[in-house]
What does this fold into?
Amino acid sequence: MRRRRLAAVALLASVLSVLVLWGCGGDVEGDCLEVCDAAKKCTETEADCKDQCARVADEAEQTECDSETNDYYACRLDADACDTAACDAELGAVTVCKLDFCLAHPQHELCDIDG
It folds into this structure.
């Protein structure tokens, strides 16, 4: 059962990474929108930045990872919009924070893939 929960947490981290790499510091949602809009030009996608960034901000608040998420977007704002690897350390901190949250709250809707 523990292994299944860890797999669920890993899946959550992967989903977060995809959202962040699509483009989704201070104001998480606002900074995310700015990063997402800039990243769309690099990837030539039509990502729905507004919905993605609202979700990212909500998840950061729910998981109490606001600080780590702020740091990630601050880094992305300072980096080249097309260099998604520039802020890997900050993304790692967000992932660790969310993993820690899910280990402490395995039944939370963001952590429980069965629910």
